[in-house]
Amino acid sequence: MRDRADFERYVEQRSARLLRTAYLLCRDWGTAEDLLQTALAKAWFAWRRVGENPDPYVYRILANTHATWWRRRWKGEVPTETLPEEAGRDPAADLGARDEVRSVLAALPARQRAVLVLRYFADLPDAEIAEILGCSVATVRSQAARALAKLRVDPAARAALTSELR
């Protein structure tokens, strides 16, 4: 039986990796923290049923919650000439080439981005990605192939990825 100590241990061990995955899905640290907190709250309610390997379950919650939030995104913001206050500095802004890779990922459709993030950044096998996203392994592979083909054709993406690999 899974208990609170198991959940706390899981959160301590995996929260940094889950936060990074959430950030790569939504491309904003604040939203990523909210997404992770929501996913962990949902996981807590089902913790006794999750099983011995909670990663696929939690990654699926992350992906599904992000997709739901993306569909319901509020479009009522009004741009202003000056910001009311300066926002906190984004730690990723100092990473130059990585920021370019993130912007290249942002140009991909949500499903393709989710596949690449889960495959290359969360280092999950295709079978787990398929389980998380609720699709077949073949769909995961085709989405990855389409995303990589799109990145190969885009000169900005090629430059960003090449500089990241150096």
Automatic annotation (TrEMBL):
<dbReference type="GO" id="GO:0006352">
    <property type="term" value="P:DNA-templated transcription initiation"/>
</dbReference>
<dbReference type="GO" id="GO:0016987">
    <property type="term" value="F:sigma factor activity"/>
</dbReference>
<dbReference type="InterPro" id="IPR014284">
    <property type="entry name" value="RNA_pol_sigma-70_dom"/>
</dbReference>
<dbReference type="InterPro" id="IPR013325">
    <property type="entry name" value="RNA_pol_sigma_r2"/>
</dbReference>
<dbReference type="InterPro" id="IPR013249">
    <property type="entry name" value="RNA_pol_sigma70_r4_t2"/>
</dbReference>
<dbReference type="InterPro" id="IPR000792">
    <property type="entry name" value="Tscrpt_reg_LuxR_C"/>
</dbReference>
<dbReference type="InterPro" id="IPR039425">
    <property type="entry name" value="RNA_pol_sigma-70-like"/>
</dbReference>
<dbReference type="InterPro" id="IPR014325">
    <property type="entry name" value="RNA_pol_sigma-E_actinobac"/>
</dbReference>
<keyword id="KW-0804">Transcription</keyword>
<dbReference type="InterPro" id="IPR013324">
    <property type="entry name" value="RNA_pol_sigma_r3/r4-like"/>
</dbReference>
<feature type="domain" description="HTH luxR-type">
    <location>
        <begin position="105"/>
        <end position="159"/>
    </location>
</feature>
<keyword id="KW-0731">Sigma factor</keyword>
<dbReference type="InterPro" id="IPR036388">
    <property type="entry name" value="WH-like_DNA-bd_sf"/>
</dbReference>
<comment type="similarity">
    <text>Belongs to the sigma-70 factor family. ECF subfamily.</text>
</comment>
<dbReference type="GO" id="GO:0003677">
    <property type="term" value="F:DNA binding"/>
</dbReference>
<protein>
    <submittedName>
        <fullName>RNA polymerase sigma factor</fullName>
    </submittedName>
</protein>
<keyword id="KW-0238">DNA-binding</keyword>
<dbReference type="InterPro" id="IPR007627">
    <property type="entry name" value="RNA_pol_sigma70_r2"/>
</dbReference>
<dbReference type="Pfam" id="PF08281">
    <property type="entry name" value="Sigma70_r4_2"/>
</dbReference>
<dbReference type="Pfam" id="PF04542">
    <property type="entry name" value="Sigma70_r2"/>
</dbReference>
<keyword id="KW-0805">Transcription regulation</keyword>
